[in-house]
Amino acid sequence: MLRLLPLLTAVLLANALPVLAATAPRSGQTLSHVFVMVLENHSLSDTIGNANMPTINRLARQYGYAANYTGMAHPSLPNYVAMIAGSTMNMTSDDPAQRFAGDNLALQLTKAGLSWRGYMQALPKDGSTADYAGTYGKKHNPFMLSLGVLADPAQFANVRTLAALGPDLDAGRAPNFSFIVPDVCNDMHGAPECRGRAQLDRAGDAFVDAWTRRIMASPNWKAGSAIVVTFDEGGGGDTLGGGGRIATIVVTPSGPRGVVSRVAYNHASLLRTMQEGFGLPLLRGAKTAASMTDLFWGAGK
Length: 301
What we know:
By secondary structure, the protein is of the alpha/beta class. The protein has one domain (2-296): Alkaline Phosphatase, subunit A, CATH 3.40.720.10. It is 29% helix and 17% strand. The protein has helices at residues 5-16, 54-62, 76-85, 105-111, 147-150, 153-156, 165-170, 197-216, 267-278, 293-296, and strands spanning 19-20, 33-39, 64-70, 116-120, 132-133, 136-137, 159-161, 177-181, 225-231, 245-251, 259-261, 265-266. The strands form 2 sheets. Strands 1, 2, 3, 4, 7, 8, 9, 10, 11 and 12 form a 10-stranded mixed sheet that branches. It has a two-stranded antiparallel ribbon with strand order 5-6. The longest helix is centred in the last third of the chain and has 20 residues, at 197-216. The N and C termini lie far apart (42 Å).
């Protein structure tokens, strides 16, 4: 019975909140700053209703919650790539020696005169190309897998340590797109040197709590801003949508409150929504994925 409690809570949450249908983008649905936080390997049923994740559950109740969002593959690395490329780019493993060619969100933003940064906890130094270093792993850093980013020192210099995020926020100089990745002890997945399952869940939730508060206190938190909290993939053999059903939450300054979307979304949907909001061309799977307008702007906005 205890194992069923998170799933039952998820069902109750979904049924308790109004449900929105996806709507086509309208004029005025633009984005200025998007902060994407990516956690690891938790299915939706292990997240919504989990007492060790009070912040994530509070945000799901208070803001926009995607109840039918899935990862696109297993294992982790292809999902991170899909978030900026709209496709797994035929990657099927966590091998950090893999590379992909072609356009992606980072390159698009630069071409459009917009800014981006990846903030990676435990990255040895800004612009590091290390495969692994302590609790950091390149498999969670899609920018350093992009041949286009690696070919330009000015591009991969945008991959920063997490320590750079706080000063950027405090000074109101956050980039248009921030991709925030905890280390393996704070992403809820864990490693031998980390804590047990309950402690990992609490640590990941505390990471989300600290950084959502910091972002929302920043001068960059204004109309056109959004925080997205998501996971790379589900766990426990969940293969729905390719990568399993995962909790994804959209927090905005003045957008939807207390709503659940039952529209089928995935990482390509998130990419599409960001590309539309930034006025960029759609890439690969983003061309056919559903846009998450109901959670960023609300129905009829």
